[in-house]
Amino acid sequence: MFKELDPILHSQLRLAVMSLLISVKEADFIFIKEKTNATAGNLSVQVQKLKEAGYIEVTKVFRDNYPNTTCKITPEGVNAFEAYVKVLQEYLQIKQP
């Protein structure tokens, strides 16, 4: 009947991160943390899960002696996000009796 929603993207925080990155393509950790109202620890765990799934690339560098983590959506991440949205739209088109 319906395809299953991607469990990686079905997490509220991971979906929020992907929604941000789909529009800006790349963002630093602090920006994502502020926009999602997540704690640094929770966001770090969820970013790692997205990275392991191949949905984002994570780059860590030092700027002015401070660590800077940047997240960038991958082509695989774009495809997964678009597929997730399509399946969600199918669910929303269910006709009620």
UniProtKB/TrEMBL annotation:
Pfam families: HTH_34. InterPro entries: WH-like_DNA-bd_sf, WH_DNA-bd_dom, WH_DNA-bd_sf. Residues 13-92 form the Winged helix DNA-binding domain. It comes from the Bacteria. PANTHER family: BSL7504 PROTEIN. This is Transcriptional regulator.
